[in-house]
Amino acid sequence: MTEDEIEKMLVLVELLFEKNGAVPLDINEKNREKFGLRRTFKYGDKFYRVDQAKFEEDNRPYMVISCTDNEKYAQIGVMDDIDALGFDMSEEVLDRQVRIAFGLEPDADND
Hints:
Elements: H1 3-19, E1 23-25, H2 29-35, E2 40-43, E3 46-55, E4 58-68, H3 71-76, E5 80-86, H4 91-101
Antiparallel strand pairs: 1-2, 2-3, 3-4, 4-5
Helix pairs in contact: 1-4
């Protein structure tokens, strides 16, 4: 996957955050620039971000949805990873994963 394709998928997830009611925030700009973090979104009382990661056992990149309910942590970009998603997912599947992360839909796979 090219860097452009990865960026397009990350932007898609951010658009899905907004579609499902999250509000983009202009916080953490200093650390965003310093560490290459993406924009933070707020949904309800929680803060979310999507980034990419590679895991040691698999060299493929993944999208990672991260979250915190602590505003001070969100201000500096510290969040817990809550889900890793493949870049090969359809928009419909990604939308469902965002809805699950936001608590709008149950996760049938983990019930």
